[in-house]
């Protein structure tokens, strides 16, 4: 299935883990639409691990837990479709899912058919408990084929955390998005580690094969399944959304939407940032003057603008600058170059070919740069 923009939506795992059910999904879908998140592009509602019964039925079919989902998945899919949303489900390439529920190894084509019958639009496919005899890349290819032959457009979202050199084979599997890093937790250390590791995937992220930095923790504030202590500060959450969108990662909200505070809603719905995330070209970012704990990157956008990310991963505040030459625009005397901060909307130019600013510890800035011929 060709997907031409990084997918956006919501996923149960970060906040709810095993505590999922039909009412939660319906209430989330209702709130998602009430708060207008769908208008920003958040369309997929994904039920992660722990939705199935522990045993397949007598015909070998996977079955939703009737206590958690008394009306079944088909009815839930219809409920979401009625609201203009899409339903995502979860399975795993191994003998069991990561939480120990039935997985799809040796049942790939049956499960893909079941998902298609239910009206599922998206499959997150995990990498736990792989059989010893078949490598993960074959199993991902097999599920890719099963989905493509299922008779329904189902987005294939691979979740192998970058393991076994995922980036070298993921494009052979037909996955539209793929986890490039390990599981996220709701704290600064986790964010910093994913941001640092993500640099290895700049060259392989591309249209139709999006490197997924994992579900968002914005708005969790330390609560829920991957919540730790107090979570992150507002500025750290801003850095989180700044980096995910600058990199063009899929955006799957992980917080409880029913209790989401206004600050978090604002972080998730910055139009400028979402436009950068969803840019149709997904050009590869390039370094301005990056070091291990201070990233400065730029990315050419489809309308000829340039996005710039300055991200201070260190624990000390820093003054910083970048110049026109780092953007390949040195001595472009025939150009007016303006720089707009996507959060404050403040616009400035370059002074003596330089743009300087100040970025506090754990903070980041995203700018959209416009070029105009004089
Ligand atoms: C793995 C994945 C997570 C989540 C859990 C569910 O750890 O990386 O995103 O799906 O499994 O068990």
Helix content range: 25-40%
Strand order of the largest sheet: 7-6-5-4-3-2-1-8
Q: Give the N-terminus to C-terminus distance in angstroms.
A: 44 Å
Shape: globular
What percentage of amino acids are in beta strands? 15-25%
Description:
25% of the residues lie in helices and 21% in strands. It is of the alpha/beta class and 374 residues long. The protein folds into 2 domains: 8-277, TIM Barrel (Alpha-Beta Barrel); 286-373, Golgi alpha-mannosidase II (Immunoglobulin-like). It is globular and about 75 Å long. The model has no long low-confidence stretch (mean pLDDT 97).
Topology at a glance:
Elements: E1 8-11, H1 13-16, H2 22-34, E2 44-46, H3 72-82, E3 86-92, H4 108-118, E4 122-126, H5 136-148, E5 155-158, H6 166-169, E6 177-179, H7 188-198, E7 210-212, H8 234-247, E8 251-253, H9 262-268, H10 271-277, E9 286-287, E10 294-300, E11 306-312, E12 318-323, E13 335-341, E14 347-349, E15 354-359, E16 364-373
Parallel strand pairs: 1-2, 1-8, 2-3, 3-4, 4-5, 5-6, 6-7
Antiparallel strand pairs: 9-10, 10-11, 11-16, 12-15, 13-14, 13-16
The structure holds alpha-D-galactopyranose (GLA).
Alpha-D-galactopyranose binds near residues 48 and 49.
